[in-house]
Amino acid sequence: MKLARRIQEVAPFYVMDVVRAAREQEAQWQRQGRNMIHLSVGEPDFSAPEPVVQAGIAALREGRSGYTLAPGLPALREAIAAHYQAKHGVPVDPRRVFITAGASGALTLACLLLVEPGDEVLMPDPTYPCNKNFVAAAGGIPRLLPTTAATRFQPTAAQIDAAWGPATRGVLLASPSNPTGTSIAPDELARIAAVVRKRGGFLLVDEIYLELGFDPAYGRTALALDDTVISINSFSKYFQMTGWRLGWMVVPEDLVEPLTRLAGNLYICPSSPAQHAALACFAPETLAEAERRRAEFARRRDVIVPALEVLGLDVPVLPDGAFYVWVDCSRYSRDSWDFCFDVMRETGVVLVPGKDFATIQPERWFRLSYANSVENLREAADRLGAYLRPRERQADPARRAMADEPLA
Ligand SMILES: Cc1ncc(COP(=O)(O)O)c(C=O)c1O
User: Fold this and answer.
1) Which helix (H) or strand (E) holds 249?
2) Mind listing the pLDDT tens digit for each residue in 392-406?
């Protein structure tokens, strides 16, 4: 069957090769009584907080499972708007909150709404791989902007201004980012917003990890900048509701009507039991639990990052949020793909090679997800240490020189 051309532009996930190999190995290791440690998954190891589960059960029991309006339950839109006021001191009109099937649904809708075939959208390299594909699926062209550790792997306003061409329509950023866990400094984001405004484009800021931030210097929502910024968000990470498929975006008011038409036609509405359950997210006891879990993620970061550095696995920028570390393995290997597979075979620790996220020096990096217990993180560090120690002695001078090269 002839497939639409747009599907050819949608790249596969290389990480699926890792997942498949890890599954096969796990079956074998389990038979031998050995365990694998998965530091590859991009989802929290907690499930939804108990009040959310109870609210979901009650909604199902009481039959609150029919369609809702396309932009979502008014009460949920109001609760989200109130949260911006309470937590960030930013007033948001509930009519600007649009509930979606995860941040993925929001990004899909936003790209279909704003991107014409042939339009360019600027985004950083490395980036969350799906971001390229949301743009490509709308017929647009993702244009990657190389970043370095010096700018926390985030693009600068000057870079965006210089890269803006006749076909450029907008910018898609994530702060904190996946795979690096690093945020854009608020003053730089303000400068980026000014450039985008001057150019008459759109600024989409994926803030799915905003509430999982550990450094108050970066914790401010982009919505504080102005009413034209589009903020993407989700219940997946901070509220640990990945499979419930619920997210939202805050958009300029005039986008709500066309989004309602688009979403209503494409999928009618987001899951209504999930929306009823999500109302419980903003209850004080749920927020207290979410904050405890955030603190636990910060504790894990503070365990794993120093442990990696002691091993000579460099983390050039300390992550300030999410649950990822972007790690330089060039001291030990010329190719993070081979490195990750070898580490998995030898130690059972599962990591994700940089290839999915980066086009610049993907072979230098891997992503580690610390959505795992402190005990497992310590065990993983021990296993990595035992694996790396003999290799450190053999590390050839060329490899060491690569590790000492400035970061691209
Ligand atoms: C940066 C980023 N954006 C969006 C998503 C999609 O999240 P969801 O659709 O579950 O809300 C993810 C998931 O890992 C992500 O890391």
Assistant:
1) strand 247-250
2) 756 555 555 555 565
Domains of the chain, with CATH numbers? 5-46+286-404 (3.90.1150.10), 50-283 (3.40.640.10)
* Ligand 1 pocket residues where CB is under 6 Å: 42, 102-104, 128, 174, 178, 206, 208, 234, 236, 242, 247
Neighbours of 231 (CB within 10 A): 26
Q: In whole angstroms, what is the distance from residue 387 CA to residue 252 CA?
A: 52
What pLDDT is stored for residue 13 in this prediction? Answer: 84
Amino acid letter for position 149 = A
Query: Residue 245 and residue 208: Cα distance in Å, rounded?
Result: 13
pLDDT in tens, 188-209: 999 999 999 999 999 999 999 9
Cα atoms found within 13 Å of the Cα of residue 184, Cβ hemisphere only: 24
Query: Quick one: which atom of ligand 1 is closest to the CA of 107?
Result: 4
Q: Say whether 287 sits in a helix, a strand or coil.
A: helix
Ligand 1 midpoint to CA 232 (Å): 10
Phi, psi (degrees; rounded to nearest 5) at 58: -60, -40
Which residue from 128, 211, 245, 367 has its CB within 8 A of the most atoms of ligand 1, so it is best to mutate?
A: 128
Report the C-alpha dihedral over residues 54, 55, 56, 58, rounded to 10 degrees. 90
- Residue 3 in tokens: 């497939």
Q: Which residues pair with 368 in a beta bridge?
A: 325
Cβ atoms of 349 and 275 closer than 8 Å: no
| Residue whose CA lies nearest to ligand 1 atom number 7 | 103
Strands 230-234, 202-206: parallel, antiparallel or unpaired by DSSP? parallel
Closest ligand 1 atom to 101 CA:
9
In contact, 171 and 121? CB cutoff 8 Å: yes
Question: Residue type for 391, please?
Answer: R
pLDDT digits (tens, 9 = 90+) for 5-42: 888 888 888 888 898 999 999 999 999 999 999 999 89
Positions in the chain whose pLDDT score sits under 50: 408
Q: Which of 209, 237, 356 to mutate to test the pocket of ligand 1 (most atoms within 8 A of CB)?
A: 237
In sequence order, the 6+-apart residues with CB closer than 8 A to the CB of 44 are 237, 240, 242, 293, 323, 371
C-alpha 275/C-alpha 242 separation (Å) is 13
Please calculate the CA angle 95-99-103 and round it to the nearest 5 degrees: 130
